[in-house]
Design goal:
By secondary structure, the chain is of the alpha/beta class. The strands form ten sheets. The protein has an eight-stranded parallel beta barrel, surrounded by four helices. Strands 26, 28, 29, 32, 37, 38, 39 and 44 form an eight-stranded antiparallel beta sheet that branches. Strand 8 and strand 9 form a beta hairpin. Helix 11 runs parallel beside helix 12. The chain is globular.
Length: 779
């Protein structure tokens, strides 16, 4: 092939300047950058315009051009954005952002033979070899002897996941790799790839090499994603690394409890997409107006075991210290950072309910009274319980102290509280994060800046340009782009992933666009806020919203604006990659949503079905399963089915069933013949009891069909629609009679059938919603 002609291009942009300077004439006076040639070791920066100093601040590909301008040759020719500050010699408050792009020639003149394979996020550099690699039962996971102890966790996890994904149970060895092996090593010679970079080489064996454990682990995620799509891996060489150091997700567990298992699954799920920052928002409260305008009635929760204030820990769901430590240990193994957040001095109702004296009389009990010294004592005691000692509960370096949405009238005391809490938490060796609020809370009281990281979420609360001027490092968390508030009618129910893919990177906060390579922006994070307490949203519903966003934002936070595929192509290919080999949070019964249907006619004993106290008797069609009560059931070979589905069965209940008699059960939900207190067919999940308003006739056969989507659940009786649980609303008692949509969704439970008195026959399951006509034909 012809070698690539290396050319130089530079782009000058004068929008969203550091301190609002817009003199493009000065920017355009910056000379061009000298062309980079093969063998160059360092960028030659242009001379500064008269009266200014041009200061290089970084690039969007530091493994190619680092902060000092040193060049590491990429695999193929690569565009790199360089970021400079142009500083006036008369006043250092006059600064301009200058962005230039250059092309760095590569080790190879072209992309090679095999095209770059699809993974999420996309590989940053690739050179294709020829042919494919296949794992076999004789393959091994081989650890470099020099790094054996450091690699044990990654090898153990990879071994199990390869077994889950491909059914191959590989042995773990140490030493030199042979043909067909997977070789793991931390002896990467190229140190410029940094903590999270790695090389992925496929030839006679697969070699994943990195400088640190985190990068090595990301390489194993690439391997698994490739195998999930095909049973062969294209030969070639990848050099992969992120553009942004922080790639995060924020989950509000304060207003809605999420099980420990969900959090553990999400560590693995995030890791599969190379997201490394899991912020857990541990306390919050609902809105008083939805709770009879009464603070004592307003929902609030703090989710961690607390011994200093025993009444603080939520009664309806919490994590023990032991569980939370184990969660962080799991996250360490999966290269994910857990960032615990304790939010004050607003969102603080959980604290003021336990110590009422610290509640604000001026702004409401969800605000701490920052004029009361006891407020400081209480919050310091709470933090101290988790960050002090030689084995603190919060094991990672980063701790989030909240600090958003406090009353603007008391800005000075709010600033003093923020400064004090930063210094207090730092005194235990922690690194502090906080929510951006200092534009909203303008004042003269100083707030510590150095080594403090700010989530900038709304530019009216913290203008990102002002925060950069103050010196804060920022995590881009813009509400108008990245906030999910399920079924609330404001912000997003589902993120606009096409718009995000095409237009957003972490360098964009609200309408402010920072330059690629600007070190002010550490990365980005998206969030789920569960503002509407009690609206029926489940863990499964949240995951349904997060999954597509996770895939797109994984790409944008790892690769920035470098999206070589069009969104429509990305969207199609992304469907081939799931949550990770050991997970099925979405309740899929077939890969890649391939058509699935299964029928259990119960005519005779089936090896797939294990019965306990259930027998085969004459049924609707030949035999059926007959049950004698709550301890009589059959285990099916599935756990549950998620959206979208249809479940059909014939049922003949006896006349003496009790309330809560069960038809189907799984760890996440129960379908009941007689819902609690109603005697109606219904279901329960996550503390919500829902019924269809229909009582199944006794001592006769009835055909039941239940369909479910991410919007709701429907019941059909004898082929005809009976009830659609899609458009029910919660009407609050506030002055506006606010209406919020009620979520009445269901992941249909399939782990066991039975637990009632009567018979059930002809069970059929589809992974699609059948039409009304198709359901009518079933009868």
């Amino acid at each position: 092939m012809k070698s690539i002609l290396i050319t130089i291009a530079f782009v000058v942009v004068s929008q969203s300047l550091l301190f609002g300077q817009t003199d493009s004439t000065v920017i355009q006076s910056v000379p061009d950058i000298k062309e980079i040639r093969v063998g160059d070791k360092k960028v030659i920066f242009p001379q500064s315009p008269k009266g200014y100093s041009l200061v290089f601040k970084g690039s969007n590909r530091e493994p190619i051009i680092d902060g000092s301008g040193n060049i590491t040759i990429p695999l193929v020719a690569t565009n790199v954005s360089l970021y400079f500050e142009l500083i006036s010699e008369l006043s250092d408050s006059i600064k301009y952002d200058v962005s230039k792009q250059i092309v760095v020639p590569g080790k190879f003149s072209d992309g090679g033979v095999n095209p770059q394979p699809f993974v999420i996020p996309a590989l940053r550099e690739w050179h294709g070899g020829k042919g494919n690699f296949s794992l076999t039962t004789a393959s091994r996971i081989v650890l470099n002897t020099a790094n054996e102890k450091q690699l044990q966790s990654a090898a153990r996890i990879l071994k199990q996941e390869l077994k889950d994904l491909a059914g191959i149970n590989l042995s773990i060895a140490k030493g030199r790799p042979k043909k067909g092996d997977i070789f793991l090593t931390l002896n990467a010679k190229d140190k410029s790839i940094g903590e999270e970079g790695y090389y992925f080489s496929t030839d006679e064996y697969i070699a994943i090499s990195a400088v640190n454990y985190q990068g090595l682990f990301w390489g194993t995620r690439t391997l698994l994603q490739l195998l999930e799509q095909k049973n062969v891996i294209p030969k070639g060489l990848a050099r992969d690394y992120p553009e942004f150091k922080v790639r995060g997700f924020v989950l509000d567990v304060g207003r809605k409890f999420f099980s420990l298992q969900f959090l553990r699954d999400y560590v693995k799920f995030m890791s599969y997409y190379k997201l490394n920052d899991f912020q857990i928002h541990l306390n919050d409260n609902g809105f008083k107006k939805y709770f009879n305008d009464n603070w004592p009635d307003t929902y609030s929760a703090f989710r961690l075991e607390n011994t200093t204030y025993p009444g603080l820990t939520a009664k309806d769901g919490s994590y023990s210290k032991k569980e939370f430590i184990a969660l962080q240990q799991l996250a360490d193994d999966y290269a994910v950072r857990i960032v615990p957040e304790i939010d004050a001095p607003a969102h603080a109702l959980a604290f003021t309910k336990v110590v009422p004296e610290i509640g604000s009389k001026a702004y409401g009990m969800d605000h701490l009274d920052l004029h009361n010294p006891l407020s400081y004592t209480v919050m310091e005691n709470i933090f101290k319980e988790y960050i002090s000692g030689s084995t603190p509960v919060f094991t990672s370096k980063a701790v989030h102290i909240g600090t958003d949405e406090y009353a603007k009238k008391d800005a000075e005391v709010f600033r003093a509280f923020t400064d004090r809490m930063i210094k207090y938490v730092e005194s235990f060796g922690k690194e502090v994060r906080l929510w951006g609020a200092l534009t909203h809370a303008k004042g003269t009281t100083p707030v510590k800046v150095e080594n403090v990281v700010m989530n900038t979420w709304y530019n009216g609360y913290a203008n990102p340009v002002e925060m950069k001027k103050l010196g804060y490092k920022q995590i881009s968390t813009p509400d108008g782009w990245l906030y999910i508030v399920p079924a609330a009618g404001y912000y997003y129910d589902y993120l606009n992933i096409k718009n995000l893919y095409n237009k957003w990177t972490p360098s964009m906060i609200g309408n402010v666009q920072f330059k690629p390579g600007d070190p002010t922006i550490l990365g980005g994070s998206f969030a789920v806020w569960n503002d509407i307490v009690g609206n029926g949203i489940t863990e499964k519903d949240v995951h349904d919203r997060v999954f597509p966003a996770m895939q797109v934002l994984s790409q944008k936070m790892w690769g920035g604006s470098n999206t070589t595929l069009k969104f429509d192509d990305f969207n199609v290919l992304s469907k081939k990659i799931g949550e990770g080999p050991s997970l099925n949070i979405s309740g899929k019964l077939s890969k890649n949503d391939a058509p699935f249907t299964v029928r259990f006619n119960f005519d005779q004993k089936d090896n797939q079905i294990k019965t306990k106290g259930a027998v085969y008797l004459e049924g609707y069609s030949k035999n059926a399963l007959s049950f004698s009560g709550k301890d009589s059931y059959a285990s099916l070979p599935y756990t549950e089915i998620g959206y979208d589905y249809t479940v059909s069965f014939w049922i003949n209940p006896a006349s003496n069933n009790l309330d809560d008699a069960v038809l189907f059960r799984s760890p996440n939900a129960t379908v009941k013949l007689r819902q609690t207190g109603t005697g109606k067919l219904g279901f329960s999940r996550e503390g919500y009891d829902i019924d269809f308003g229909y009582a199944v006739p006794e001592n006769s056969w009835t055909h039941i069909v239940i369909t479910g989507t991410n919007k709701g659940t429907s019941l059909y009786v004898n082929g005809k629609p009976e009830k659609r649980l899609y458009d029910n609303w919660i009407v609050f008692a506030d002055k506006d009679k606010t209406r919020m949509r009620k979520s009445e969704t269901l992941f249909f439970p399939l782990q066991t059938v039975g637990g009632f008195k009567g018979k059930l026959d002809e069970l059929q399951i589809w992974n699609k919603v059948l039409s009304d006509d198709e359901i009518l034909e079933l009868k």
